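Methods, example record. To illustrate the input and output format used throughout this study, we show the complete record for Malate dehydrogenase [NADP], chloroplastic. The sequence lines were provided to the predictor; the line carrying structure tokens was produced by it.
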Amino acid sequence: MAMTELSTPKTTSPFLHSSSRLSLSSKLHLSNQFRHLLLPPLHTTSNSKISCSVSQNNQAPVAVQDNGSVKTKKECYGVFCLTYDLKAEEETKSWKKMINIAVSGAAGMISNHLLFKLASGSVFGPDQPIALKLLGSERSIQALEGVAMELEDSLFPLLREVDIGTDPYEVFQDVEWALLIGAKPRGPGMERAALLDINGQIFAEQGKALNAVASPNVKVLVVGNPCNTNALICLKNAPNIPAKNFHALTRLDENRAKCQLALKAGVFYDKVSNMTIWGNHSTTQRGGLLIQKWGRSSAASTAVSIVDAIKSLVTPTPEGDWFSTGVYTNGNPYGIAEDLVFSMPCRSTGDGDYELVKDVEFDDYLRNRISKSEAELLAEKKCVAHLTGDGIAFCDLGPVDTMLPGEV
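The corresponding predicted structure is encoded as:
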């Protein structure tokens, strides 16, 4: 890595009350331990109604449609499975159309910080309802239920749906944003090449799932390390999605660098602008030091950096400034090798898209540092050639380059 400068219709049920305004067909949720209280039929005003049968086991509630047919949604959770069917004329006009956001590794520490920021409206805006699609593993499914319970207890008015599951082909259905956080950490004695292969297979499968079922213009942010190479694997396995839509998270590096520069300059960090992270999320940042001090890798600050990365794409970049994100290098103006995911300076008009900044000054020191990051990513790319469609993998990372970011 190189751096440069709504009020719902009142129910008659004694168990459910709401004073939040419903903007669209929405799903509400109640914890497992209270589901047996929902056995009495729920009544609303004549223009909207709820009809459902609620099981008292761990299965999701079963919605009963007007024609008597049963529609089962196994992945929704609790009251988020109770569907309020509002007529079009009842839908408020002040909120936007709901967007679907998938989060992998949703039972992890980073997600534990991130999900509540997403649900609060601090990321996509105070008028943007969202549906959260949470992907975990068989081992983490109970933890995912716990996450869903906390989300329901928080009463976020913008959070309209929560789905949980372990199959990316189900969880990623129609998602417009995919935040891929989950990745396997390296265990004792594991070679980096082996970890690249294990995590690479995860992101290859998730790329295929996104390609098959996600929105065709889905925006994908890869957080699981090594995020640049994982993002490359993911995009290579999703040929129907524009390669430009894939990002590797280097915003945490940018935020850390801004803090360090502000300390050196004796100013507050909002005075630091035009910071660029070139290349990859690497060991030259202070992730390892944070582990020494804190006893674990960063989670809260990583979640904040994910929020910052998304907001940089959905809000216009301030005039004269830019932000860093790892993107596909094909067609870049800097002479960086093509067919990599490489962090570069970008600007956005706030539509979710971006353009590379062309008016950047280079000196010999910067070019040398960029070349080092380029070499690291080219070496990683060779290790995962079998996952990107580039032939047989050959891994020669060398003894100096065996640590992943944040390892000690």
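Annotations derived from this record:
The CA atoms of residues 255 and 298 lie 13 Å apart.
DSSP finds ten helices and 17 strands in the chain.
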